[in-house]
Design goal:
about 270 residues, D-Maltodextrin-Binding Protein, domain 2, 2 domains, signal, alpha/beta, two-stranded parallel sheet, globular, ABC-Tungstate_binding
């Protein structure tokens, strides 16, 4: 019996590497997870490659930092300027466009500040500031937070304590907080659509071209961090930008609403 158990142990230890489960460590933004997209998008890849994708969902800034430190194999985020710096500094390779949606401003249905009348996103922010209406900021250097800061800057404003809350939380948590307090917030459309049945805040402003929200994927550079699983990262990039991944993104809906729109060049 002992020799049989030892045999099983040795066979497990010396099994061909192709039989072992592969692991891909991914840092991504909270919106890809909060919407429910990732489980649907990743399942076919995991099955085909006999792999497990370990997801760390944080703001885009933190996700890129994880890539910079070599703590993950791949980064899937939505902060184009920071992504370009990440690649230019040599931390990321094979950056590819995957999909897009847009940012929107949501708030109490009564719209006490009156942002429905705004013509641009920065004008909506000015109206909120002038009314000192409550606003919840992610405050986490995510792609959404970076966009929000750009809009305040474009409006020529510095938001003030009292009516402005910077909470350092993901998009789902911020939406719930805005809902509880009847405050305004900036959100990606996908997370809002996936959560809106549980919220009372409403979509109050949309459509400004500046609110375009593109997502890109990139591998962590194996020349910077030799231990990363670059081969599997490259396989994943090819998948999400290829016909099957792009179809999964385009077909993904919540309540009949499409949350993301495929962007890969093959289309």
């Amino acid at each position: 019996m002992l020799s049989f158990l030892i045999g099983l142990l040795l066979s497990a230890v010396f099994a061909p590497s192709g039989m072992a489960e592969q692991v891909l460590k991914m840092a991504t933004t909270t919106s890809t997870e909060n919407t429910g997209l990732l489980p649907v998008l990743d399942a076919p890849f995991e099955k085909k490659h006999k792999a497990r994708i370990d997801v760390i969902a944080v703001g885009s800034g933190k996700a890129l930092k994880l890539g910079e430190n070599g703590d993950v194999d791949i980064v899937f985020v939505h902060d184009p300027e920071a992504e370009q710096k990440f690649v230019a500094a040599g931390y990321g390779v094979d950056r590819k466009a995957v999909m897009h949606n847009d940012f929107i401003i949501v708030g109490p249905e009564a719209d006490p500040a009156g942002i429905r009348a705004a013509k641009t996103a920065d004008e909506a922010f000015k109206i909120i500031a002038e009314a000192k209406a409550g606003f919840v900021s992610r405050g986490d250097e995510s792609g959404t937070h970076v966009k929000e800061k750009n809009l305040w800057e474009k409006a020529g404003l510095q938001p003030e304590d009292g009516w402005y809350l910077s909470v350092g939380q993901g998009m789902g948590a911020v939406l719930r907080m805005a809902d509880d307090k009847a405050y305004y917030t900036l959100t990606d459309r996908g997370t809002f659509l996936a959560s809106r049945d549980k919220l009372t805040v409403k979509l109050l402003f949309e459509g400004d071209p500046v609110l375009f929200n593109p997502y890109h994927v990139m591998a962590v550079n194996p020349e910077k961090h030799k231990h990363v699983n670059y081969r599997l990262a490259k396989e994943y990039i090819d998948y999400v930008t290829g016909p099957k991944g792009q179809k999964a993104i385009g077909d993904f809906k919540v309540g009949g609403q499409q949350l993301f729109f495929p962007d890969a060049p093959f289309r």
